[in-house]
Amino acid sequence: MINEGFEMKKLLSLILCLLLSLPIGTALADFDLTPEQVTEKILSLQADYPDQQLWSKDIYYAWRGGIYEGGKGGMAFLFMASDAIFGDLPARMVQPVDYGALRPGDLLRVKNNTHSVMVVEVLENHITVVEVSTDRKGNSRIYWGRTLSKSAVLEGDYVLTRYPGGGGTPGVLPGDVNADGAVDGRDAVRLARYIATKDAEASARAADVNDDGDIDGKDLRLLVQYLSGQDVELKVRSE
């Protein structure tokens, strides 16, 4: 027991040192909003951008999500709204579209890669969205509350998501070891305790971030690399 306790302290000390050394602005940036809270935050934008407000096709916005430097017209509005919710969190492209993994704030590309919408709410058989579209006179306007059926969503081209951990299996966020809806330093500490003692509660599917069937030091190393901003992919254990 003394040796086990000593090893656990060494492991936790190592994790603590690594977390304290993380640069500001990495994936450790707090994002603790629930999907319902993200929906509320999106809807709050209506105060400044009401339904059917005119939107210039010439407006350009430089996006902080990466992948694309920015966009004009309708994409400028969606990128601006995305940054208002997710700040500097990096975006990831998910293909094919997985309806069960779709969340408020995700950007969905549709109509044979010609149009984008922001997901506002995900319901059983359809989603509600906000988008910029052209009216009958050719003017671009912001439209709130439009819907897309589940079948239409599944025909989409791809999704841009900025939730920490990226896509993954529906209902399981890769790396969210303590199942609190976010991937952060608390998950690394929980995983270290689990590996060292096996008496800490952990979501096995979220903790096996390399999907090799085991929860061990390789998963911990990968999770810490992710938290430190390295370009690594977290996975969910296959069912």
Offer a concise description of the structure.
The strands form two sheets. A six-stranded antiparallel beta sheet has the order 3-8-4-5-6-7. Strands 1-2 form a two-stranded antiparallel sheet.
Descriptive report:
- The chain has helices at 2-20, 35-44, 74-86, 150-154, 185-197, 204-207, 217-227; strands spanning 60-62, 70-72, 92-94, 107-110, 115-122, 126-134, 140-149, 158-161.
- It is of the alpha+beta class and 239 residues long.
- The chain folds into two domains: 2-31 and 168-227, Type 1 dockerin domain (Orthogonal Bundle), CATH 1.10.1330.10; 35-161, no CATH class.
- The strands form two sheets. It has a six-stranded antiparallel sheet. The chain has a two-stranded antiparallel ribbon with strand order 1-2.
- The protein is elongated and about 65 Å long.
- Mean pLDDT is 82; it is low at 22-29 and 166-171.
What are the salient characteristics of this protein?
alpha+beta; Type 1 dockerin domain; 2 domains; six-stranded antiparallel sheet
